Structures are given as C-alpha cells and as structure tokens.
Amino acid sequence: MKISITAKLFAAVLATALLVALAMGVAAHLNLKRGFLGYLNEQGELRLEAAVPGVTAGYRANGNSWNFLREHPELWYKQLRPLADDEGRALDPRERPPPTVSELTGATRRFALYDTDRRRVAGFEGSTAPEVERPIVVDGVTVGWLTMARFEAVSSAAERRFEDAQWRSRWLVGAGAMLLAAGIAVWVSRALLTPVKEVAAATHRLAAGEYGTRVHIEARDEVGQLAVDFNRLAHTLQRNEEMRREFMADVSHELRTPLGVLHGELEAIEDGVRTLDRESVRSLQAEVATLNKLVSDLYDLSLADVGALTYRKADLDVAETLRLAAGAFRERLSERGIKLALVLPEAPLMAFVDERRLVQLFNNLLENTCRYTDAGGMLRVSARLDGARVCIDFSDTAPGVADEQRAHLFERFYRTDASRNRQSGGAGLGLAICQRIVEAHDGRIEAKASPLGGLWIAIELPQGAA
Model's pTM, two decimal places? Predict the structure, then answer.
C-alpha cells in the first residue's frame, strides 16, 4: 500500500509528540513521587521535633514514668500535641491546636515511643528499626526515644487522592498535548507539503511535454527556491523545444532552397529548355557548394555541442594569421567596394590556439562582411595584447544591428530582418560556429555596435608563450 508523504509526516510528528508526552509524564511522576515522599518525611521530622517537649512534659507530670501511657494508651496522641506554635508562642493545653500538614498526611500515626531499654511504650508498631528518632531527655538523662518510621509509599486516603489527582492532571495534559500535536501536524503537513505537491504535479505535467507549466510559490525557503529552479528548468526546456522546432524548420528551408534550384535546373536541362553548357554546370556547382557548406556547418555544430570537435592547439602568431586570412578576402572585398584596413602589431602576437579552427573563425567573420556590409563601406581588423589576453576586433560599416537583436546573433539560423538576411546567401550558422570555436579556446566573443556604424565583433583569446 502506498502511503503519502502527508500521512508519513503527520505520523512522524504525532509519534514524536506522543513519545515526548510519555517521557515527560514518566519523568514528572518519578520526580513528583520522590519529591512528595521527601516532603512528607520532612514535615514528619518537623512534627517529631515539635512533639518532643509535650512527651517530655508528660513524663515529668506522671512521676517520671512511662507507665501512664502503658496503662492509658488513649493519652498517646494528646502527648504529641505541640506546646508552642511555629512562631514559639505557647498554646493553651485546653484548646485543640489546628492540625499541621504532617498530621493531615498521617505522620503522627507513624510516631512511636521507646523506653531506655528500647521497648515500645506507645505508638506505631510497624517498624522495628525506626529511621528517625529524637531522645527524650529529663534532667540531663535520656529516658526514652521518640521515633518516626519514614514514608516509603503513599498510603493514606488523602495522599492517594493527591496522587490520583496528579495522575488525572497528567492524563489531561497529555491528552491536550496530543490533540495540540495532532493539530500542529495537520497544519504543518498542509502548509509544508501543499507547495511540494504543487511542484510534484507541475513536474508530472512537464514530463508529459507541457513545457509552459509554471508554479507560483512565493515562499522564501527551500521550497520557494525549488519552485524558482523548477520554473527556470521549465523555461529552459520550453526554449530548447522552441529552438528544436525552429532548427528543424530552418534546416528544412535551407535544404529545400538549393535542392529546389537543383531540381529545377535539372528538369530544365532534361526538358531541353536549358542546354547543358558551362554556365548551367557552374550554376549547379554553386547550389551543390551551398548544400555542402550547410551540411559541413551543421556537422561542425553537432560536434561542438557534444565536445567532439577536434582541436590541436599550439602557440601561434595571431597577427600573421590575420594578415593571411584578410589577404585571401582582399579581392572579394574590393569587388564589393569594401575597403579593408588592418591595424596589426609588427611584433608576433602569440596565442595558444588551433590554427585550422582559428582560420575558420576569421574566414566566417570576413565572409559575413562580404555578404552584409553595404558597398562603399569599410572593414577594420585590429589585434592587440591586453594583459594576458589577445584581443581581436572586426568592425565594419553600415548596416548595423539593433541592440535587442545583437544578443541573438550567435543563435543558429538567426538573421536580422534588415540587410543581413537569407537573400545574402548565408544560412545563419557562421556566428554560432564562431562562438563554439572561441569558447573551446577558453575565450570570449561579443557583438557590439561598431563606431563605424555597422557591427563590431570583439574576441578575446588566452595569450600563448612569447
């Protein structure tokens, strides 16, 4: 049988309260019993002390003999009456004094009188070895002993009534504590577990594919933090699902476009509408190259995502690599009417990188400039050493990218809605690959607004050995 966490928590709190109540009840019973018996014995000893003068006076008044008590035992309790009150004032022997606490508890019934030979004269017969005794001294001579047997258990009706009242009080307090514990257990179970159940239910919906599920818990404790983490996880899963769908749609579109062109070209050649000449072959090769680059970029991204993209890092002169890469694009940039400006140091600028991946990085950024920068513009490429980092900047002229769009430039298939779009020939994967390459080198890449009016790509790489 499956037991809910609410029932488990309720049972745990209730069981703990029950054990605590029982432990407190047992401890209170033991302490009260010991303390109560001690109190009775203490009061009895005080009463014993107060009875000594009366018993001594009776001995004197009856010819210095205990025979009057042997012959008239009914006089015994009269002899035990104190001659003075607690403040030392003499009491009238004709009046019966008010009963003391010890008399109410039956302590005087445990008093006994023994003569000098330790023979009982009067009083309690239940003890042969009294624990408390006081001498009866007359003219400096001990003529007897007044004794009291200690209380070992509650025996009198009044004492038993007192003990029973204590037990009833304990049971009432225990029952009240149990009811209170049960109420608190119910409240705690609901107050603490209701948000946990809400998160659990939301987790089931999330597992079923409802990525828009959110929980609204405003608690500032661990449960509240759990809700925050759950919402963050749900948002991430929702975003990943959206990106997956967008990715599939974008890949389908990017593949359909060149395949559609190829299909149309081949049908035209097959139907005789277009002749198979050098121009048509060049057009087919261009579409195949587009497909090949798209597939290669997708493959590189998939390897980068699982950390399988190979890197053979070594110390490399970044400035010289930039010169060679820019030189390879100089003619294309010139054809587009874009001026290239290199601001590079003459001294080697060493970084610990993979040369092949670094060239791929530079080629992607230079390709973007060729595709998207307006004719008559300019590209400025610079590199410098800043502390232990090598800083590389690609800054071009218009068109620029809006602030809210720059944060998405490194996402797959992302394009702005201005001039940097699919019509320029790009699939929107170049900057995503650039980001993976830079991060694999423990570097950082960032898109900013260019002071020239276009886009500024800032790259930082770790410095290599000089």
Answer: 0.49
